[in-house]
Every structure is written in structure tokens, then in C-alpha cells.
Amino acid sequence: MGNKLFNGIDLMHGAMVIAGLDLAANPRRCSGYASMDLNERTIFNVKCLYNDEDILNEILKDKVKLLAVDAPISPEPVFRDVDRKAIRGGYRVLPPTLGAMRMLAARAWRLYEMLSIKGIEVIETHPRSALKSSGEKSVEALLIKMDIKLNVDNSVLLIKDLRDAIVSLVVAYCYQSKARLMEIKGEDGVIYLIGELL
């Protein structure tokens, strides 16, 4: 008899793990990473990662099932319909055609393909826009409102790349739980944000 699943959670083998990644264009710079036990709503891993192999290995080690990435997920670095809609909506996303964004888009697509092969669902987000759309003033306030615990040293909140990874993780939580999820849909993609709690 197979294991029972509840909303994507394997009840026999612990909770589903979700994660957020603030991907850097250059592998020599910090890509912020944060992962959470969905069942406990507890963030247990927050760190800087660098090359693609390190990122992939960390995601596999944590047994992540869903990853929200702060990067354009597109096979080609083009100015997408979804980018135009986000900008028209007041969200300052950078189109994949601009400078280092071309490198970022290429790296994001590479990781997307590697992770998809491993059965990991990858969604696109934009942390600065997600924090704005949530109506919260800070990452700390967002975690309190979402009742998510940070089981690592609070000093991680002093580093922008790690804060952005945590916001990306909260987007993954909203996507998985279908709570406070906001979508910007274009013909060529979806950018997921956090809806305001009224």
C-alpha cells in the first residue's frame, strides 16, 4: 500500500521541502538560498551558494520539491510579454535583454532544465516586487504575518541576497499552499508574487 499524500506532503516520510533562490548572474557572486520544511513552516537552511554544481547539490541534499527563483525563466533572453505586464503593473522587473540580465537568464534556464530533469518544480518570482505586493514593510514582518519560523541566526536578514532568497521562499509557500498567491501572467510566462492580506 502506497504512502498517503496530503497537499503534496508525504505523511510517512516527513514534510515536503520548498526553497527560494536569489540567483546571481555571475557564479563568483552569492546566490542566496533558503529552504523550509513545509509541514513545520520552519526555515532551516539559509546560505550563499556559488557555482551551478553547488546550487544543484544543495537543492538535492535538502530534497526540495518546489523552488521559486529570482530570475527570468526563459529559453531566450527576450523582452517578454510577462515583463511588460509586470512593469505596467508598477513592478520594476529588469527585462532579460539588459546587460548582465542576459547572463542571468541563460544561467536560470540551464538550472531550470537540470532541476526539471530531477523532477523539481521551478517557478519564477521577483522578491522586491513580491515584498511590495504583500503590503509588508520588511522580511521580518512578512515572516511574522505568514507565521513562518526562522530557525537560523537572524544575522542572515542583514544580507540582501539572503533576504531575497527568503522572500522567494515565501512565494513558493504561497504557491504550494494557494494562500496569498498573486500572479502576473503573460503569453510567455508567469511571475508569482505575494498577495496582500486584507
Q: What features would you highlight for this structure?
A:
single chain; 198 residues; alpha/beta; Nucleotidyltransferase, domain 5; eight-stranded mixed sheet; two-stranded antiparallel sheet; 10 strands; 35% helix; 26% strand; disordered N terminus
Briefly, what is this?
By secondary structure, the protein is of the alpha/beta class.
| Shape summary | globular
Q: Under the CATH scheme, which architecture would be assigned?
A: 2-Layer Sandwich
Number of domains: 1
Strand content: 25-35%
One letter per element, helices H and strands E, the order comes to EEEEEHEHHEHHEHEE
Mean pLDDT: 91
**What is the CATH level 1 assignment?**
Alpha Beta
Question: Rg from C-alpha positions?
Answer: 16 Å
CATH superfamily: Ribonuclease H-like superfamily/Ribonuclease H
How many strand elements? 10
| Class by alpha and beta content | alpha/beta
With helices defined by DSSP (H or I, 4 residues minimum), what is the helix count?
6
* Largest beta sheet: strand ordering: 8-5-4-3-6-7-10-9
- Describe the main β-sheet briefly: 8 strands, mixed
The percentage helix is: 25-40%
Distance between the termini: 43 Å
CATH topology: Nucleotidyltransferase, domain 5
